[in-house]
Amino acid sequence: MSTFTGIAHIAIVVRSMDTSVDWYERVLGFEPVGGVRPGPAEAGHPRQLMRHADSGLALAVHEPLRRSGDMFDPSRTGLDHFSLAVTDRTALDDWARRLDDLGVSRSRVRDAGYAEFISVTDPDGIAWELWAPRHVQGAASQQ
Prior knowledge:
With about 140 residues, the protein is α/β, with parallel strands linked by helices. Helices cover about 20% and strands about 30% of the residues. The protein has helices at about 15-30, 90-100, 140, and strands at about 10-15, 30-35, 45-50, 60, 80-85, 110, 115-120, 125-135.
């Protein structure tokens, strides 16, 4: 059977690369890798690669030359949100304090039964969750 080993990277389209790169660096701790790259000519998507040092997750921030300028809308077909795993409720509370200290609007800690999480949106309205799964006895066998 064919398989994959993880996420290689996430690519997002933004209205302002400078604004978004600053937000992802300041708020979520991603760091720019190299400079802005032009990308393939046919794509018309200059991009800035960013990397999160602790998790190794790569984020490509794209600012198309011909962009619509509209905000992200999770009700359209396509992406709803991204979810980043944290170790536990203590780590989730640490993130809540960090976001509050930075003045970043966030949801309250919500309980999904099998996890607790916080929602936040970037400058373009792209939704992110910080997700603390509950380690429930027998949960792995129920999947």
